[in-house]
Model the fold of this input.
Amino acid sequence: MDKYTIISKQNCSFCYKAEELLKAKEEQYELLYIEDEPYLAKLLGMADKRTVPQVFLGSTYIGGYHALEDYLT
Done:
């Protein structure tokens, strides 16, 4: 079963909300912080994504918090 990956940033309210949403749905996930993994910020920029969270399910791109919310409902 694929798990979710949240590309996040410290002190990001929507990142926190994405994590809480996945917890509430009892979904498996991992957090990757751009402060800890600088290449993530570069990759997001190359993909023209300038905000966090960016959420994936396995290798499938979901989007930001609102897209995750829509995906799970």
The chain has a mean pLDDT of 93. DSSP finds three helices and four strands in the chain. The radius of gyration is 11 Å.
